[in-house]
Amino acid sequence: MYLTIIILPILTSIISGLLGRKIGREGSQIITVIGMTIALILSLIGFYEIGYNNSWVNIKISSLIKNETIDINWGLTIDSLSVTMLVMVLMISTCVHIYSINYMWQDAHIQRFMSYLSLFTFFMLILITGDNFIVIFIGWEGVGVCSYLLIAYWYSRIQANKSAIKAILMNRIGDWGYSIGLYVIYSLFGNWDLTLLQSLTPIIFITNDKIIVLTTITLLIGAMGKSAQLGLHTWLADAMEGPTPVSALIHAATMVTAGVYLLLRLSPLLEFSSTSLSIIIIIGALTAIYSASTAIWQTDIKKVIAYSTCSQLGYLLIAIGCSNQSIGLFHLINHAFFKALLFLSAGCVLHTFNDQQDMRKMGGLIYYNPLIYCLVLIGSLSLMALPFLTGYTSKDILIETAFGHYIFLSSLGFWWACLTAILTAFYSLKLIKLTFLSYPNSSNLRYPFNNHYTYNLLSFDIFPLIFLAIASIIFGYFTYFIINSPYSSFYGNNLFIHPNHISLIDSEFIPFYIKLFPLICTLIGSFTIILIHLYNKLLINLSIINTNWFDFFYSYFFLYPSFNYAYYCYKLLDRGFIEYLGPSGIVKSSFLYSNLLVKADTGVISHYTLNIVLAFILIAIWIQSSI
Description:
Blueprint: H1 2-18, H2 20-52, E1 57-66, E2 71-78, H3 80-103, H4 110-129, H5 133-151, H6 158-189, H7 194-207, H8 209-226, H9 234-238, H10 244-252, H11 255-265, H12 267-270, H13 274-296, H14 301-321, H15 325-352, H16 370-384, H17 390-403, H18 408-437, H19 462-484, H20 512-531, H21 536-541, H22 549-581, H23 583-600, H24 605-626
Antiparallel strand pairs: 1-2
Helix pairs in contact: 1-2, 1-4, 2-3, 2-4, 3-4, 3-10, 3-15, 3-19, 4-5, 5-6, 6-8, 7-8, 8-11, 8-13, 10-15, 11-14, 13-14, 13-18, 14-15, 14-17, 14-18, 15-16, 15-17, 15-19, 16-18, 16-19, 17-18, 17-19, 17-20, 18-20
């Protein structure tokens, strides 16, 4: 059953990609959707079998690398952590596949698109279920390649190609850190097996604790690249050049969650490195507040949601740095539902306005499409973590437990997270205001009564939206006591917490006003946007500031100096020293010596006689010296 879950996505990807012209557009859509649905049903059965019955599965498929020093198996481990991620990834992927049937119905290459989506899901499943770091690395690289293919899906657009190249280059920096971490892990443990790492880490910590810090920091660089943390985050907003279903899949379930999942798997190493935990808190807090402040100034509706993803991932790193891995995982799963809802609903808005993404040119959509307004409102309120919604069950307790950790950096993370909550409420309601509630700011031709593309309850893509909306309301309350409760042993040793770092119980006894403070911050941000509701021009003018500071920094300090250095190397070395000693030098020397020989050919017999005599004399001298 568990192998079937892994095989179905790659099987449907191969059929849709290689046999797309034979099975047609509808056949490709039907095969991929059915494959994802069956895999989802089997993962739910596995969730019950493994999660509730505590019967995790380890499958050895074949030998991957085997020689005198290395023995690596192609193995899969399905435990409570991986099966939870399996259910989440397959739920979101199935919704995206169904949504894409209607959303991409005009695209001429829908077979290739569905194939890429299934391939993306397959590599994410490999990453989740790998039982050693090499198998995880295969899935890690696979999702990177698939993200490139999907972002550059419309390859005839120059900006899409540039964004795809940017994404894969930024992730290569993270992959560099991951690769160094692999070498360090092998030098420490002599293997890459996850179970061996969990067993031997306490012993390694006693003998050499500094090497554990080095290992975790290098792997953290890899996680920062995939999860778009501050410094390596610039690719995330540009990834919006791909189709909207791709954005939903990358931001909700696959690409950006890979880095967080890696840190969760590294919990045995991280818990023995307080330095690494402190660095994770700082990076997470800076990412959360920077991304939220950047989202305020965006005019592109998809980029606002993209930067909100980056901000929420910062929350997850704060939770991991505070040794609250179960809370971080709980918020990761909850976030997947309302973030997928926001992106897919944004896709409906884009199609309604003929692919117009500038919120300043929208407005008044509540009167023409109230259903999409309700869906975006549910997703935004859940993102803001208002009570009685899924986001509230995980986001608020995540911030509370940061305060209950009782160290300086976790307290700092708490206050920065509260400030981020204010900004989150501000840009979420700004999106709703400019898109739905303001006066219509676009041409009449862009509005639904003049538009052939309208949404109704019979469309295929409305069913996954309604499912995601319901999950954004009630999912957190149904799963809180299973996944996140301090009295639950659902994850066992899969999420290791050092006894000195346990703070979940202590956070229950923090002052009541501290528990309410994240909600108060959300309400402050909400009332701020309500107060300026009458000043529509003010909200529009909030978008005049350029926020591409990191792009400018990388260009000015890294890109341009690299170009100049490459130019001088090309002129001085390639076309200078190396060229002189190489082809050009040989050619010039040949012409020089051949000209000298030509000058020796005078046509005078006495000259030839002299040359022959001199040659015999030189030969005689050489023979005499050799005797």
